[in-house]
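Minutes, project check-in

Agenda point 3 was the complex the collaborators sent over. CS summarized: two entities, 316 residues total, and the question is how they sit relative to each other. Sequences were read into the notes so everyone works from the same version.
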Amino acid sequence: MTSQTPSPGEWVLFSYRLPREPSGPRTTLWRRLKRLGVVQLSDGLVALPADARTREQLEWLADDVAEAAGTAGVWIARPTTVAQERDLATAMAAARAQEYLTLAEQCGHATREDAADRGRALRRLRTEWRAINRRDFFPPPARDIAAAALRDLAAEEAVPAGPTPGEVVESAP
Amino acid sequence: MRWATRAGVHIDRAACAWLIRRFLDPEAQFLFVTDPAEVPADATPFDMRGVDLGHHGGDCSFETILRRHDITDPVLWRIGEIVHVADLEDDRFDAPEAPGLDVVLRGLSMTGSDEQTLAVSGPIFDGLYEYHRRRLLLGREPA
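CS then shared the predicted structure for the full assembly.
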């Protein structure tokens, strides 16, 4: 392997089986996995890039699965090829990109709300931004679009409605 | 008593250690291990996989300790909400302090040993406790 070819990094895999009924634990588990930003490899097998935090979060979920009468395992693995790793990273980046674009769209809607609704939307969307960031391991270009949309919304929030004196002067013929 | 937890202390373990030393065992000694198998027989493990004082039924370890020891102090339960949201990031409670506190603890774990993290975070949790105690007594934000 030449120095130009990076070797694949470590991933933490989470394998799980849960009884079909009751459906509550399945739903909770899936919601938690989504929040962590996992990529699904196959039925009952998901992956995240390995670090202390991702590994710990999946280990806690493994305990939850065991408490819900299921079985789960946490594994450290390395893809055998860079291409295989790139496929995972691409899938994860695409999923995050979709979330960032939705966020940008919501920022756009919020700028047309009245001041009170705009303030509430800004707080909610900032929380959402942080949540997406936490599960964004391979930042896609759409991240910048969402960041700009949030900045625009925040700027709207900071100045009173209506043109500022500066803008009036500039737009005067 | 000796207490053991995983090395690389973050928010939940730091908060648990503070809770243990301040409310359960003033003489508490803490050990940091990398594998649950390394916990000595005479030490009580916490915030580790497969131990009693860990995550259970959606609770973080701090909340589990409160439950197991029948602690009803509302101020500690309020801190439990902050630790829960900081640790699990699930927005179960409204805890605006959580993201900031989490960042402070992460930063501490990058700059010093686990002992140092506990030494610095102890007074932070003391302050957090006092703030929320006053807030509860006043029924509004304390000055």
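Noted in discussion: Chain A touches chain B through 15 residues (CB under 8 Å).
Follow-up: revisit at the next meeting once the mutant set is ready.
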